[in-house]
Amino acid sequence: MSSFQLEDFAAGWIGGAASVIVGHPLDTVKTRLQAGVGYRNTLNCIRMVYKRESVFGFFKGMSFPLASIAVYNSVVFGVFSNTQRFLSQHRCVEPEASPRHSLSDLLLASMVAGMVSVGLGGPVDLIKIRLQMQTQPFQEANLSLKSRAVALGEQPAYQGPLHCIATIMRTEGLAGLYRGASAMLLRDIPGYCLYFIPYVFLSEWITPEACASPSPCAVWLAGGMAGAISWGTATPMDVVKSRLQADGVYLNKYKGVLDCISQSYQQEGLKVFFRGITVNAVRGFPMSAAMFLGYELSLQALRGDQAVTSP
């Protein structure tokens, strides 16, 4: 039987949509904390966003990720599942002698998914962050770095996702859509390893031996824990990525990954790389729980299975 299956992509799309709806408000808070100014902590950020922009401020830039991140997650989950299945089927050992899930197969499949994610997800993340950050107040001392025709902080730089894409293409070219891609690559390759691998082994560990596959409750719990682990450990490079991608809304401050790390450390110390770690880990649980549960239940429905299956 061929290892390639389209159902994984369709189920990934449904799971991706669920994760965006659940996680976008906290994602906005995370981005503001990492790349913005004037926020003391998570609760202070939430209060300030609500005070300035009402509840709609937490959903800034959501339409674009809802339409695109679902496709992005579809590709990531489809690539991971099909790669892992291909490696498992072509491993040069007797099936009876090999474990159900080989760590090396999961590791390689996660790395491939991480690399693919940057090619598709880099522009998606960039547009989302630019839209989330355009109402962020900027320090007056930095205004000389780059002038705009509009008054900063009074008028949004972008009128929507399409205008944002057109503006970046006009001012920065195609390369501008992949600003921060190097940092995203350094975040996503280890990040997806710490996403898929804990999920697979946690779901197996939670599931009783008498059951052939994990229950929805096990999927929800294992997916949530995997998300918290992955996003928590990815925070330092996520900070760098967010700053590079937010850079350019009004200002051009960083020359690259190393320059961003250097400037951030000199100005704010080591603690800057752990900005948003709490909200990252907290939002990682419901987002990933919704993602994996949506994926597994959709896969079950599409294949007509009676039990939830692992990727």
Describe the structure.
The chain is an all-alpha fold and 311 residues long. It starts with 6 loop residues before the first helix and ends in an 8-residue tail after the last helix. The relative contact order is 0.15. About 5% of the residues have low confidence.
Topology:
Layout: H1 7-35, H2 42-53, H3 63-89, H4 103-133, H5 161-172, H6 181-206, H7 216-233, H8 235-246, H9 257-268, H10 277-303
Helix pairs in contact: 1-2, 1-3, 1-10, 3-4, 4-6, 6-7, 6-8, 7-10, 8-9
Order of helices and strands: HHHHHHHHHH
Oligomeric assembly: single chain
Please tally the β strands and state the result.
0
First-residue to last-residue Cα separation: 17 Å
Uncertain segments: 138-153
Please summarize the sheet with the most strands.
none
- Based on secondary structure, the structural category is mainly alpha
Q: How many separate helices? A: 10
Mean pLDDT: 81
Helix content: 55-70%
Task: Identify the notable features of this structure and list them briefly.
311 residues; mainly alpha
